[in-house]
């Protein structure tokens, strides 16, 4: 009986250890540099386990679910364009933090391919004595300079996590709120709950591991001449859709399927080019300025 009890306890602990916690943040953004009155708001998830954490858009998970259902049905149903358009996101990147090796990885799509780099700038925090309460949590103030912005964070030690949304980490607690000095980007913790495991993210196209500087160069090439960039990637226009940070698969929010087969290639190219330029304008005030 004692041996059975030990096995049962081990299985119970293994189950608890395998679980992850999901923290839901409301992300408020002013992504258009020419129109600061255009405020975007959406939810993002920070999933945390003992070994790692992942930060990504809630809409991405919903889009992936629709895509997966469509694939499982053999694509017969097609996509609900209005539904997919409603799930467009300004958070087209994802961020994974390797807690064991203390590394942060940024992933984003440029054109047809996914790019991944390891963040090479450690955050240096100044922890201040000021405390307050946000919701049910007692929080303490901290400040840092990162990506060309000055950030103020409020973290809590009421929860057994040392993490935060986006690339923010390194404080002795969980970040409940973080906002830049201009009030152009903010992350506010709304709720949290347990999940069985991390979701599997759909990946379309190649995944290319680069240095951060190389990623920025590729991003600039894409913004300067997106059509030339796409041609160099060797992709046909009918294989891609436009997402928040570039041309992507249907998961990036375009809708996908059922259109474009009989359209003039020149018209398709012009329409896509116009849309890419509009996307660039609407995302001309990125979270990282440098």
From TrEMBL:
The keyword Signal applies. Keywords: Signal. Residues 1-20 form the signal peptide. Residues 267-281 have a biased composition (Basic and acidic residues). Residues 227-290 are annotated as: Disordered. Residues 252-261 have a biased composition (Gly residues). This is GLPGLI family protein.
